[in-house]
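Write out the 3D structure for:
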Amino acid sequence: MIAPERPRASAVATKRVLVWHVHGSYLTSLVQGGHTYFVPVLPDRGPDGLGRARTWDWPANVVEVTPDEARSLDVDVVILQRPHELERLAEVWLGRRPGRDVPAIYLEHNAPQGRIGEMRHPAADRDDLTLVHVTHFNRLFWDAGSTRTRLIEHGVVDPGYRYTGELPRAAVAINEARRRGRVTGTDLLPRFAEALPLDLFGIGAGALGGVDDPPQHVLHAEMPRRRVYLHPMRWTSLGLSLIEAMHLGMPVVALATTEAVEAVPPGCGVVSTSVERLCEALRAYGDDPAAARADGRRARAYALERYGLDKFLRAWDALLTEVTA
């Protein structure tokens, strides 16, 4: 297993943060910040009490708390990620109202779903919390009304340069590809596979002939053996697997939707809304290992600069200082 970097000494006073384990990859990066992160846990380890990660190696500053422990917990801030946390769950656990009795941040991972012109964010028009978006695209499309918003772009723990590209195949990472269908571009995979054979990784991938829910260390070892990373998502915020693939040194072929046009600049891969153009790119990378390697090296350099862990954690330090002042 690739162990995350040791949590750095925070550049600000250490905070005591309550945050639910909702998005394991994101939280793996966040908890490197050197603060104390209290993560709710329930006996069944269900969605509202998942506790510490079992497929990532988290540092000791991530502490599980039960409901009884949480009510007497002295926290500086609560980070909310789902509507029901804002509406009731945080108050039930803490006995305090987020935003009113304890500083609160709403961290939005997702792009809006449904009739976009009519979508209002669950935290819209709140003067008692700060809404954090993870991409420019999300900030642009969500209607937050008068709520304060901040943008903190993704940061990931660097898995290191691992690219070999020895297999003339494309790696694709999609969780629940069959259920999510057109949202994740699952319907496009047969067309892409005609241009270059694909290997699918992710939760539920086994049902489609892929590798089902691989541990992170397996994913980081296997993906860079493939020639190129394919990102067929039509409507997702920005998959962390894309940023990880770039860190690994992989060139990217991606649909030019949501944040992909920001994440993959020229020289790091090919981004287009044309499936035909993307198929051409897959064939080209399959036929030219040297070009794939060169673009992958540029992709890694760009990802380290834009989505580096230190930059991400500094931004979170600044926000935590702001909201708890």
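The longest helix spans residues 289-306.
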